[in-house]
Amino acid sequence: MSHACTRLTDRLRLEPIGARLAGDLFALYQDADVARWYGRWTREQVEQEVARIAQSWLVDGVHKWMAYERVTGECVGRGGLSRTRVEGRERLELGWALHRQFWGRGYATEIGRAGLELAFGELGAQEVASFTEVHNHRSRAVMERLGFEYSKDITVSDEPFALYLLARGADRSPAAGEGV
Question: Which of 28, 87, 88, 89 is closest to 53 using CA atoms?
């Protein structure tokens, strides 16, 4: 069953990433503050990534969304779920990346909440993972706001990352729009 459909939150329109959104993903990865965490991507790399994400939506029914403000239509960033291998286990992973101008306005939390609704609702997940560089305090704060608990430090591409986990039924975060 495919879950690849547009979702609405209080302030955002979340669209499954596919070929027509490649320009918006490319622009996101050109943002200097995003590139600090993800590196600066070429157009070709983004095209390959978009094809991979679109295939995952088609085959698995889950992956990242592009997020747009519902009122203005501006691209806020990307986020949502993907399946990844963490600590030798296949897991649902929740993540986000926002254009710098949208930091600190609660959008990452809003995207995260939508991802958790999909994971624990339609996908029937028992647990969701989220991880970031150990020094990315903003993302770690979002994870905690969403109800994730720190599990341990892990290594990703030879870099130290902090792994957070959230089990089905765990107490979740405050109302939408609060925090980052």
Answer: 28
151-171: pLDDT as tens digits: 999 998 899 999 999 999 875
| Structure confidence by residue, pLDDT tens digits, 49-90 | 999 999 999 999 999 999 999 999 999 999 999 999 998 899
Give dist(CA 131, CA 32) in Å, integer: 21
Domains of the chain: 7-167 (3.40.630.30)
For the beta carbon of residue 143, count every other beta carbon within 10 angstroms.
28
Angle at the Cα of 125 from the Cα atoms of 13 and 174, rounded to 5 degrees: 55
